[in-house]
Design brief:
The complex is a heterodimer of chains A (252) and B (641).
Chain A (H helix, E strand, L loop, with lengths): L2 E7 L8 E7 L8 H14 L22 E2 L2 E2 L21 E5 L8 E3 L2 E2 L2 H10 L19 H11 L6 H5 L6 H13 L7 H14 L10 H5 L7 H15 L7
Parallel strand pairs in A: 1-5
Antiparallel strand pairs in A: 1-2, 3-4, 3-5, 6-7
Helix pairs in contact in A: 2-6, 3-5, 5-6, 5-8, 6-8
Chain B lengths: L14 H8 L5 H4 L3 E5 L3 H13 L2 E5 L17 E2 L11 H11 L6 H20 L25 E2 L5 H18 L3 E4 L2 E9 L2 E9 L5 E5 L2 E4 L20 H8 L4 E2 L4 E7 L22 E5 L16 E2 L1 H5 L9 H13 L11 E4 L1 H7 L1 H19 L8 E10 L2 E2 L12 E3 L17 H23 L10 H20 L3 E2 H16 L5 H21 E2 L9 H25 L23 H4 L1 E8 L8 E8 L14
Classes of the chains: A alpha+beta (252), B alpha/beta (641).
Chain lengths: 252, 641
């Protein structure tokens, strides 16, 4: 296969970027999208040019490092798939592709296709945990959890923190990410004592980081590689309102 | 070099309990006076950093990924072992201990492995308390499944994403400590060197991967939890960034390296396809609970799998190991796959593949049940291969997965450099010559949550540690060394890319230090590697500059260290003149092709010491031994028949 790529190139956070065009030759349909970029990069290096910077690590769809806009869609055209698991057989020979970084106020560009997603970490630090010190736990089977709740908590916990939900949202909202974590813990008995503070603290941090609000278009759910349901956003809204109306204060 | 394993005396069952009482403590008021550096944020690093933060130490934690949540522990699929005996099927701490020692082919320390089994149950308790959504039964209690090398069901799991859920649990605890100010996190920061002052580990030199700045951090103790070195083979199931740099730099500063040649080749990975391939993808061992492994009986049988009748199939694991069948341990399953492929009975385009067939299980349990158990793995398989495993057997082949070798540590997880502690896959301690499935997660978390918090206090309370800062000369010297190396890599401007060198190195290692090794091959590799390394340092082309986000430069530094480390692996493989676990030497096998151990001469840990200056590429490696003393178990021939 041969493809024409238009790729966003930007030296660093403060230098303006631009699209540049490259030919991708000798591409096999069995390559992953990132392997295709590897091939392009090898050629760029041999030509004495800077390779395209992009995040990646596990290349099996679980670490959440990778993430690109391919023709305007986060993680490209295949449903429920991270960029590293997107294969070139999803494209046609001779196709022209536009490859850009996540575009969101909360995710400033570091270089080319690499963005700074540390805002997600700060949201978790604000309350995305259950406070239990090592060694303080009781026997695991002392606390039964209904199977349906455990399964649903798992579905929410499957989020890989890639940020596609934010990139796809016209408001650059992080509600899907936040709601998945809030939902996971609110479904489990272990999560109850901090349930209200958690919702308040995480939502407040999300606002501070400059992420927008949800206007129910569900673009996030459509691009999520782990198929996290937008239903959790409704759940988050309920949790937040309940907590706001109660006497509990956020910890800060 | 003096090797003192510090294994406590007394009966096996009470060693750890007694040792914990004998260890010195740091009082709560004094903990805040100590600074601890943790490098790595996977299961071992994140659990250690979080726990030490909870205890009140000042912790700095470093990772090269853009978030601690992305460490490669996240990719572990199948599960985590624990001797809970929730099934009532005869499990116990002793049985988990024995299975692990036996699985490791009697090349690990009794006391360490017993402790691992002893704390295994607490890990499950801890993770459940953190909100880790393990699989449950309808009664609301935890579910278990079986894994290779065991005849009980003791593996706890969260669908096919157990590593992810455990890591996110540890990450949430770590995040809580970061939020509380007890841990300062440095993502996208890579350790380049270890700094010693008066013979003790007192800090590290790092490179900020966003700005390119090289800087130092000082501390009272350093913990390395930087994972394994499987990427020396280029193609492995490791994440692309996984590397040996931190542990190898520590080795060159004087930390001994234990059993570097012990590599685990995982039997169930998706076969290689094409030269462009950048990594290999694992299909969880849990699939062997329901999948049956087979190849055609006849050589070169090119028929579609469905067209090959039962009578012309060879379910070779069931045939050779009737009592463990498809759940034979990893090293044995891998070697058997290689054997049948070498005989010309492999399947797929390359003929280096075997079938993992679910037809019987689907017939017995229905497609829905199989989807519930392994759905995400089946989807992943289909995405990569474009084949539907519900309809057609998977094709699998062994791939490099885990390294049992690592920096040598004593019972307190301290290396031969005072103050330098090593946890998780980065140390050599618990898995001997072969790791059983679902034991890596167990070890990482045991080390981080339940061992290091006790043992590091003993170190800190037992010394008079002068306060030092990064203005100390030792830091300046180390920083200059790191900068010089970066500049050197950038200035070569040769004709070959870093990846092309890495691929070539990987091929040498896979061919000559892979699933089966022999004297001649290893000797050849020991000649080829230095040659390739010379070429690397004369002809590599690293794009970009040092003071910016530069992924070529990051790779180049890692590959440069692999180029030296590979030699140490081959040397270790050459000098271990026996076969054991994942280390199979063609010269040493039983008449029916099983690994032939030599307990008389090799029942020991091979402990390597670097000789010469840390600034010159691998000069000399000196071999020492730590004899393995078995007080509780009898050395037996490992049989899974």
């Amino acid at each position: 296969m041969k493809l024409k790529l238009h790729v966003w190139r930007q030296k660093d956070k403060s230098t303006p970027g631009r699209m540049e065009t490259y030919d991708a030759n000798n591409i096999s349909p069995n390559m992953s999208f990132l392997e295709m970029l590897d091939v392009v990069n090898e050629d760029l290096i041999k030509d004495g040019k800077d390779p395209i910077a992009f995040e990646h690590d596990c290349r099996e769809g679980i670490c959440g490092s990778c993430g690109l806009m391919v023709n305007g869609v986060a993680h490209g055209p295949q449903d429920a798939t991270t960029t590293c698991q997107l294969h070139m057989r999803s494209f046609k020979d001779g196709e022209e592709l536009f490859v850009e970084p996540w575009r969101a106020h909360g995710f400033p560009v570091r270089r080319d296709l690499v963005v700074d997603r540390s805002a997600f970490d700060r949201i978790i630090q604000a309350g995305g945990f259950i406070s239990v010190n090592s060694g303080a736990a009781q026997d695991a089977n002392a606390l039964p959890v209904r199977k349906v709740d455990a399964d649903e908590a798992f579905n929410a916990a499957a989020c890989i923190g890639c940020g596609a939900c934010v990139a796809a949202c016209k408001n650059a909202s992080a509600m899907l990410f936040v709601s998945a974590k809030v939902a996971q813990f609110s479904l489990l008995p272990q999560g109850q004592p901090e349930r209200q503070e958690r919702a308040l603290n995480m939502v407040n941090q999300m606002k501070e980081e400059g992420f927008g609000n949800c206007t129910n278009q569900y673009e996030c759910e459509a691009v999520c590689p782990k198929q996290i349901s937008a239903d959790y956003i409704a759940k988050l809204n309920r949790e937040f309102i309940k907590a706001s109306l109660s006497s509990h204060d956020a910890r800060k | 070099m003096k090797l003192d394993s510090k294994i406590p005396s007394g009966p096996l069952e009470s060693k750890w309990e007694r040792h914990k009482f004998d260890l010195k403590l740091v009082s709560p008021a004094n903990k805040r006076k100590f600074d601890i550096i943790v490098v790595g944020s996977g299961l071992a690093g994140a659990s250690a950093a979080a726990t030490l933060g909870e205890l009140g130490y000042n912790v700095k934690c470093f990772c090269f990924q853009d978030s601690p949540r992305r460490a490669h522990s996240i990719a572990a699929q199948g599960g985590i072992n624990a001797a809970k005996n929730y099934r009532g099927d005869g499990d116990s701490v002793y049985r988990l201990f024995y299975d692990t020692i036996k699985g490791g082919d009697f090349r690990s320390r009794e006391a360490n492995v017993y402790r691992l089994a002893e704390v295994s149950g607490h890990i499950i308790d801890q993770c459940v308390a953190q909100g880790v959504p393990f699989a449950r039964e309808y009664g609301g209690l935890l579910d278990n499944r079986s894994f290779g090398g065991a005849q009980v069901s003791r593996t706890f799991y969260a669908r096919g994403q157990t590593g992810q859920q455990l890591l996110l649990g540890a990450y949430s605890s770590l995040s809580r400590q970061i939020g509380a100010g007890q841990v300062k996190m440095f993502p996208k920061t890579e350790m380049l060197d270890l700094v010693l002052v008066d013979g003790r580990a007192r800090g590290i030199v790092v490179r900020n991967l966003v700005t390119g700045q090289i800087e130092s951090h000082a501390a009272d103790a350093v913990i390395l939890a930087t994972g394994g070195y499987g990427n020396v083979f280029y193609l492995s199931t490791n994440a692309k960034g996984s590397n040996v740099t931190a542990t190898y730099r520590a080795y060159k500063r004087g930390a001994a390296f234990g059993n570097p040649c012990f590599t685990q080749i995982h039997p169930t990975c998706i076969p290689v396809k094409g030269d462009y391939q950048s990594k290999l993808t694992l299909m969880s061992e849990s699939l062997r609970n329901d999948g049956r492994v087979w190849v055609p009986l006849a050589k070169g049988d090119k028929r579609q799998p469905a067209e090959i009748p039962e009578s012309e199939r060879d379910y070779y694991l069931e045939r050779k190991y009737p009592s463990f069948g498809n759940l034979a341990p990893r090293d044995i399953a891998s070697r058997s796959a290689k054997e049948v492929c070498d005989e010309g009975r492999g399947v797929g385009e390359s003929a280096y593949g075997v079938y993992l067939d679910f037809a019987d299980a689907i017939h017995r349990l229905g497609e829905d049940k199989i989807r519930a158990r392994y759905g995400n793995l089946f989807d992943m398989y289909e995405r990569i291969t474009d084949e539907n495993p519900y309809k057609r057997p998977m094709r699998i082949y062994p791939a490099v997965h885990y390294t049992m070798g690592g920096l040598w540590v004593d019972y307190n997880l301290m290396s031969t450099i005072p103050g330098l502690h090593v946890l998780g896959e980065a140390n050599f301690s618990d898995h001997g010559a072969n790791r059983l499935g679902a034991s890596a997660l167990m070890q990482g978390l045991a080390d981080g949550y339940f061992v290091i918090p006790y043992t590091i206090a003993n170190y800190l309370a037992g010394q008079k540690l002068e306060k030092i800062t990064t203005s100390h000369d030792a830091f300046k010297v180390a920083e200059e060394g790191c900068s010089a190396r970066v500049n050197k890599l950038l200035s070569i401007k040769g004709s070959r890319t870093v990846d092309s060198f890495h691929r070539e190195l990987g091929k040498i290692m896979w061919d000559k230090c892979g699933m089966a090794r022999d004297r001649q091959g290893l000797q050849e590799a020991l000649k080829e590697i230095p040659k390739l390394r010379d070429e690397f340092w004369n002809d590599v082309r690293v794009a970009g500059a040092g003071d910016e986000l530069n992924q070529s430069l990051e790779k180049a530094g890692r590959v440069a260290d692999f180029m030296e480390f590979a030699e140490l692996m081959c040397l270790d493989a050459l000098t271990r003149e026996e076969s054991c676990g994942g280390h199979f030497r063609n010269e040493y096998q039983t008449p029916d092709g099983e690994a032939l151990r030599n307990d008389e001469n090799f029942c020991h840990v091979a402990v390597w010491e670097h000789e010469g200056s840390p600034d010159v590429p691998a000069k000399g490696h000196k071999r020492h031994i730590e004899p393995l003393v078995y007080e509780s178990v009898k050395l037996a021939t490992r049989s899974y028949k």
